[in-house]
Design a protein that fits this description.
ATP synthesis; mainly alpha; 3 helices; thylakoid
Length: 181
Amino acid sequence: MKNVTDSFVSLGHWPSAGSFGFNTDILATNLINLSVVLGVLVFFGKGVLSDLLDNRKQRILNTIRNSEELRGGAIEQLEKARTRLRKVEMEADQFRVNGYSEIERERLNFINSTSKTLKQLENYKNETIIFEQQRAINQVRQRVFQQALQGALGTLSSCLNNELHLRTICANIGMLGAITD
């Protein structure tokens, strides 16, 4: 350590100008060189380093500002999405309630229309049965009437002679003529 302090002390004892010599003390020359290099770096590098740090600081601040803006936009979009979700959920609930009530209404309409259709079919069936009964009764009446008429004609043919037969026909024609007038 004494060599280092001696080298600083010996700086004041440099020979006068015109002579040139080598300092063989490596530690002293390295310290001097380092201090000169550090001094030059600090003097000239301070502005460059300050500019680099300022630029880096501005980029970081811009990145933070952009991140905050993006965060604000994301929060706003999230709130909009939540609002839309609530609205869609309410609409879905409304559709669900309307759907259930519509299904119930359709079910009741179907039951009512089926009931009406069954009543109509029952009425048609009853009418068809009554019609078929009337038709059967009419067919039976016609057969009975035809048989009675044939029996009466047979009886009349055997009982009537030609003259009585002509008088009956004339009387019947006269009655028919009176009815048509």
